[in-house]
Amino acid sequence: MKAGLVAAALVLVIACGGGGHAASGSRTARITPEPSPLARPSGQLDAEVAVPSGFPGDVPVYTRARLTQGATFKSSGQVSWGLEWQTLDSVTKVQAFYADKLNQGDWTITFTTKASSSFSATFARKSNSNVQGTLGAGTGSGVTKISMTLVSPA
């Protein structure tokens, strides 16, 4: 797996915190803007942002979560997405959802760590092993954050 590219995408999503940015050269980064969120911050959850353009519609998304960060990166013939959702549900519920949904259809998942308050996993498209990603979740202060990166040929 292109672990370096996936890690870089995740770091950029977290470091940029949702601000707009474009890199020079052949690499471009598009971060989902925050000024006009779909849902305003409420209770413990941050504002909702739009799904980055081109994100595959068949990737399972936890239904009781709010997308709070999203970015698309294009470089060297690949496109990468970095996303973060928030939910008030437990890590256990989130993990069970992905264990079920990413073992159906064109997806497969492998959990690399599991604990009561966090998990991490890798997943891939069965029909094209070049489409792969990482998934993780952790809970703090009553909010579960779900982080996902996905890399695909452009």
Into which percent range does the helicity of residues fall? Answer: 10-25%
Largest sheet: 7 strands, antiparallel
* Rg measurement, Å: 15 Å
Cα end-to-end separation: 16 Å
SS-derived structural category: alpha+beta
- Percentage beta strand: 35-45%
The succession of helices and strands, N to C, reads: HEEEHEEEE
Q: What's the arrangement of strands in the largest beta sheet?
A: 1-2-3-7-6-5-4
Tell me the domain tally: 1
Name the shape in a single word: globular
What is the mean pLDDT? 83
**Tally of alpha and pi helices:** 2
- Number of β-strand runs: 7
List its salient traits.
154 residues, seven-stranded antiparallel β-sheet, 2 helices, disordered N terminus
Concise synopsis of the structure shown:
The chain is α+β, with helices and mostly antiparallel strands and 154 residues long.
Describe the fold and architecture.
The structure is a single chain. Helix content is 16%, strand content 39%. It has one domain. A seven-stranded antiparallel beta sheet has the order 1-2-3-7-6-5-4, sandwiched between helices. The N terminus is likely disordered. With 154 residues, it is α+β, with helices and mostly antiparallel strands. The chain has two helices and seven strands.
Chain-wise SSE layout:
Blueprint: H1 3-16, E1 28-31, E2 66-75, E3 78-87, H2 91-101, E4 107-114, E5 118-125, E6 132-140, E7 143-153
Antiparallel strand pairs: 1-2, 2-3, 3-7, 4-5, 5-6, 6-7
